[in-house]
Amino acid sequence: MRKLKSAAVAALMIVAATGAAISTPLGGTETAASTSAQREMGRYTALGDSYASGVGAGRNDPSSGDCLRSENNYPNQWAFRHPDWVLRDVTCSGATIADVREKQLYAVNEETNLVTVTVGGNDAQFASVAEACLTKDDSYCKTATQWMSHYAKNQMVEELSALYTDIKARAPRALVLVFGYPRVIAENGSCAAPIDLSADKRADMNALADALAEGTLAATTKAGVYFVDMREHFNGHEACSDDPWIHGVDPIDRTVTFHPNLDGHAKGYGEKFSATWG
């Protein structure tokens, strides 16, 4: 990934730190770790859905309400290692592509140097598809995943590329990193109750994850931003694997089902983020 790092250096602007508190009247969390005696390297805005907000990673920020932003999410994992950067985290559980445009883009402007975004899974109705695969027969699961895979590789490409273009227009000097989704379940792993997924269902669910990745890659190529594919990095760490970075079915808190756990954000997204950009 050295090529990405060197190519992006020119896009990042060095700005002076003021040390002043920064208000966020429209929501979101902003962390300014630098003081007046330090220099601020840049401004980082995190956008996206529950995979970005950190549902399942623990330590939710109470002020984030239904957005369920975790202090352990991958934006905070990166910001913790780069204390001279100011993070503005406006990620929100349940966000769709339209939600990011309408409710999160305000946090991106010409002073923004780095943007990360993970979105599209809710538009492809991944949670509903997963629920169908868990509760319906193999045929129903296949139909649901195929239908949403077609959306992900076609209509979603246009919707995402338009969003990425809007981000670039608002922050023309920013590096835009689009983090994808991993495959959520090990096809040959052993699952404890209440997961009861046949080999066909597992393959179909992972095929949808592949379609999301393919569609997102196509959209980033069209818009001229960077795609960070998470599938290989999570390989061997899906739900039902020996070392899972993704929650299985949680009967107590269903919101975390098939979401990255703390390791998923620290070792998964966090390590991949650092390997991609510092």
From TrEMBL:
The active site is at 50 (nucleophile), 259. It comes from the Bacteria. Keywords: Disulfide bond, Hydrolase, Signal. GO terms for biological process: triglyceride catabolic process. Residues 46-266 form the SGNH hydrolase-type esterase domain. SUPFAM superfamilies: SGNH hydrolase. GO terms for molecular function: triacylglycerol lipase activity. CDD domains: SEST_like. Disulfide bonds join 67-92, 133-141, 191-240. Residues 1-20 form the signal peptide. Pfam families: Lipase_GDSL_2. This is SGNH/GDSL hydrolase family protein.
